[in-house]
Amino acid sequence: MPRIGDPAPSFTAETTQGPINFPADYVGQWVIFFSHPADFTPVCTSEFMTFAAMADKFAAYNTALVGLSVDGLYSHIAWLRTIKEKITFRDMHDVEVKFPLVEDISMEVAQKYGMIMPGEDSTKAVRAVFIVDPKGVIRTIIYYPLSTGRNFDELLRVVKALQTADHFDVATPADWRPGDRVIVPPAGSCGTAKERMAGDTDGVECEDWFFCTKEIPADEIDRAIRKK
Ligand code: BEZ
Questions:
Q1: Which stretches make up the Thioredoxin domain (predicted)?
Q2: Quick check: pTM over 0.90?
């Protein structure tokens, strides 16, 4: 089962957008690779409509979407056509899913990624999310059970948090959103710890030597991480 920090396991497969070679096709981009339990099911339908409606928001942060279930290609195609032609969810209708949906009847890819959890269901993938960075390294793994639809604002928040952490060499605290104060790395020496506590470090405010924050305005973050 892959872990955070591991290279994303590679695979080739058919998708609703043609063949895929993952993660090689996505070098230089962030990717959210996610699984859903089954085509033609309601929670999954609501998720696909939401993801498709938000695809441009993810693309603005250089983030592609790739879905997978253990259904076949023709089932995927028929389901995505039905979604576009018939389904309304909240204010979404006529939604076209333009990102690839991987067919995985053999469950080979789902097994490779630890998406099958037999205690939950041995013939369906759980709702797994892998956020993969531009070098093909897994940076986040989130699992949801079959009954619970994902929160897509949270996935976008995590993408922005990872990109902010990489660009500014900071960490992000609980419930962080761009514009909130960020955590600066812990003081690496007694001297730095003393300077920080004395308030001598530009813009850095410390609660204690190990808990220091600074402001990065939301527009500065956006200029740094938004796709040019
Ligand atoms: C759904 O997407 O609605 C669903 C799929 C599998 C089990 C339960 C719900």
A1: 2-164
A2: yes
Which atom number of ligand 1 is nearest to the Cα of residue 44? 2
Instruction: Give CA–CA dist 115/38, Å, rounded.
Output: 13
pLDDT at 200 > cutoff 80: no
Annotated active-site positions, please?
Answer: 44
Question: Taking Cα atoms as reference points, which of 22, 5, 27 lies closest to residue 68?
Answer: 22
pLDDT for res 51: 98
77 Cβ below 6 A of ligand 1:
no
CB 201 within 8 A of CB 195: yes
> Cα–Cα distance between 37 and 147 in angstroms, integer?
10
Which tokens is 110 given?
């789902």
Residue 43 DSSP class: H
Per-residue model confidence (pLDDT) at position 125: 98
Give the span between the Cα atoms of 41 and 114, in whole angstroms: 21
d(CA 153, CA 107): 29
Does the pLDDT of residue 54 top 90, yes or no?
yes
For residue range 87-115, what is the model confidence (pLDDT) as tens digits? 999 999 999 999 999 999 999 999 999 99
Give Cβ neighbours of residue 129 (< 8 Å, ≥ 6 apart): 32, 33, 34, 140, 141, 142, 143, 144, 150, 155
Pocket test for ligand 1, best of 69, 146, 150 (most atoms within 8 A of CB): 146
Six-digit token pair at 121?
A: 């269901």
Pairing label, strands 11-13, 20-22: antiparallel
In the chain, the largest separation of any two C-alpha atoms, in whole Å, equals 65
The 3-state DSSP class for residue 143 equals strand
Q: Any binding-site annotation on 196?
A: no
Q: Is 117 helix (H, G, I), strand (E, B) or coil?
A: coil
